[in-house]
């Protein structure tokens, strides 16, 4: 069941299940905390698991009146990855959690890296699940800007309906269309300005490979061979940067391994987290 705390007057929804060492799971763009349901159901038997709906996602709704205030400080903050890392830190402070392992999917990985850069003392390890420490290339920034304009013209759901299926392999789309449909139905709930702010935050984020190189704790990489959003070449290049890396390649999997092969991902996360705390 969701609980709430407030950060800068924003209602932030989170769920905490299980007991013991703490694992924090951060969702990506066009998702909410429910993207981790398979993992939470498994991991809660072994750890204390926390998932959060980032501002603008799921039950952490932000009204249009707040989002569209011209030149407001909040609107500017919502366009930075660092802001979302501060939200996560505020939640951990609220819950009086001093140490955790943090795992982020896609955009959630960018937030995890920003958190690790500033609050490394609160981590026993972190993971990038189909994510990257590299900044966007000029080409990708241009594509994101076009996407922001497309969302402005057509709205949030038509954009997500076009983009979300491309994150899965053709085989998975054929075998499990219902899973993708559930994700798409949730996409109807997104505020277009919230999605645009996420894209601006991702577009403007800095390169954080130094966070990987300077990591004093283990780093998990889960990589899909067929991931079009985070190419395997880029993932493998950076996976050797930390002093201690756990590298797992999912064959014939796209950007959504947490849904495409949840049992394997569950086992990989369980093993990694145990190693971090032992």
Could you walk me through the main structural features you see in this protein, from its secondary elements to its overall organization?
A hairpin with a 2-residue loop joins strand 1 and strand 2 (10-18). This protein is globular. The chain is of the alpha/beta class and 278 residues long. The protein has helices spanning 37-43, 64-67, 73-77, 81-94, 107-118, 138-154, 156-163, 170-175, 177-187, 192-204, 209-213, 232-239, 257-260, 262-277, and strands at 3-7, 10-18, 22-26, 48-52, 100-105, 123-129, 219-224, 245-250. Helix 4 (81-94) packs across helix 5 (107-118), helix 6 (138-154) packs across helix 7 (156-163) and helix 6 runs antiparallel to helix 10. The mean pLDDT is 95. The chain is built from 14 helices and 8 strands. An 8-stranded mixed sheet has the order 1-2-4-3-5-6-7-8, sandwiched between helices. 47% of the residues lie in helices and 18% in strands.
What is the average per-residue confidence, as pLDDT, rounded to a whole number? Answer: 95
Largest sheet: 8 strands, mixed
Low-confidence stretches: none
Strand content: 15-25%
β-strand number: 8
Based on CA atoms alone, the radius of gyration comes out at 17 Å
Tags for this entry?
278 residues, alpha/beta, 14 helices, 8 strands
What topology emerges from the helices and strands here?
Blueprint: E1 3-7, E2 10-18, E3 22-26, H1 37-43, E4 48-52, H2 64-67, H3 73-77, H4 81-94, E5 100-105, H5 107-118, E6 123-129, H6 138-154, H7 156-163, H8 170-175, H9 177-187, H10 192-204, H11 209-213, E7 219-224, H12 232-239, E8 245-250, H13 257-260, H14 262-277
């Amino acid at each position: 069941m969701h609980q709430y705390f407030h950060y800068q007057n924003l209602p932030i929804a989170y769920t905490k299940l299980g007991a013991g060492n703490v694992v924090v799971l951060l969702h990506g763009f066009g998702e909410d905390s429910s993207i981790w349901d398979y993992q939470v159901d498994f991991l809660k038997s072994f750890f204390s698991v926390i998932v959060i709906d980032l501002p603008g996602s799921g039950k952490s709704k932000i009204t249009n009146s707040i989002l569209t205030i011209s030149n407001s400080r909040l609107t500017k903050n919502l366009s930075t990855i660092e802001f979302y890392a501060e939200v996560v830190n505020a939640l951990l402070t609220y819950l009086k959690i001093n140490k955790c392992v943090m795992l982020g999917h896609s955009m959630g990985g960018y937030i995890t890296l920003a958190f690790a850069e500033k609050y490394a003392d609160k981590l026993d390890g972190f993971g990038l699940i189909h994510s990257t420490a590299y900044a966007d290339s000029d080409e990708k920034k241009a594509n994101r800007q076009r996407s922001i304009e497309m969302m402005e013209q057509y709205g949030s759901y038509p954009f997500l309906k076009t983009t979300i299926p491309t994150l899965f392999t053709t085989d998975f789309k054929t075998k499990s269309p219902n899973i993708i449909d559930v994700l798409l139905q949730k996409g109807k709930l997104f505020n277009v300005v919230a999605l645009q702010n996420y894209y601006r935050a991702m577009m403007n984020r800095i390169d954080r490979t130094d966070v990987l190189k300077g990591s004093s704790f283990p780093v998990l990489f889960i990589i899909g061979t067929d991931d079009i959003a985070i190419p395997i070449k880029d993932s493998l290049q950076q996976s050797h940067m930390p002093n201690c890396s756990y590298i797992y390649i999912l064959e014939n999997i796209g950007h959504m391994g947490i849904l495409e092969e949840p049992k394997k991902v569950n086992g990989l996360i369980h093993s990694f987290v145990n190693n971090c705390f032992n």
